[in-house]
Amino acid sequence: MKAIHSAVVATCLLVSCGKKETAATAVREAAAPSSALQSVLAAAPVGDAQEIHVIRQTAKPGDEITISGKIMGNAKPFVDGRAAFTLADPSIITPCNENPDDACETPWDACCDTKEEKLIGLASVQVLGDDGRVLKEGLEGVGKLSNLTRVTVTGKVADGSSADSLVVNATAIRVNP
């Protein structure tokens, strides 16, 4: 009798595990990127990409630009719950894992770079909805986007951007091989 009871308990556990997996799968499916985000990830960048430190010198709000770099620049380059991330110019900013003898646990935080290098080598990238606001969905893990991923971005320089703070409203984001 004890063996039957154990078999029933084990079967119930297996069935309940299956249900948890199904619930987890449903949550992942519900978190699929919006059509606005999907269109930005599916669009091809326009023109030749420029380095961030170069484009910062001349870009002004409303200009369409194409830049490339690595997703990095601080401990959390992706903004939680928003379609935004920090993009770094790899000719200026070096992830810690590319420095010899560095054992940094978060090489994307650019802790080895100076404040001046970060000032000229970083840009913020965001995806806007139809209402002109940053989409309320995270980008990390979507379309193979992750820390230290190389990407090319086309978009318009956002209002309020300056030589000290480059913000790009992305219209195309492509993960580079």
Short characterization:
The protein is 27% helix and 20% strand. The protein has 177 residues and is an alpha+beta fold. The chain starts with a helix and ends with a strand.
What general outline do the C-alpha atoms trace? globular
Q: What's the total helix number?
A: 4
Which parts are unreliable, with pLDDT below 50 for 5 consecutive residues or more? 1-30
Radius of gyration (Å):
21 Å
Total count of strands: 5
Coarse structural class: alpha+beta
Helix content: 25-40%
Q: SSE string, helix = H, strand = E?
A: HHHEEHEEE
Spatial strand sequence of the major β-sheet: 1-2-3-5-4
> Whole-Å distance between the termini?
60 Å
- Main β-sheet, in a few words? 5 strands, mixed, barrel
Strand content: 15-25%
Mean pLDDT: 84
Task: Supply the key terms.
5 strands; 4 helices; globular; five-stranded mixed β-barrel; 177 residues; disordered N terminus; alpha+beta
Set down the secondary structure blueprint.
Layout: H1 2-30, H2 35-42, H3 52-55, E1 64-71, E2 84-88, H4 115-121, E3 122-126, E4 150-157, E5 167-175
Parallel strand pairs: 3-5
Antiparallel strand pairs: 1-2, 1-4, 2-3, 4-5
Q: Could you characterize the architecture of this molecule?
A:
- With 177 residues, this protein is α+β, with helices and mostly antiparallel strands.
- It has four helices and five strands; from the N terminus they run H-H-H-E-E-H-E-E-E.
- It has a five-stranded mixed beta barrel with strand order 1-2-3-5-4.
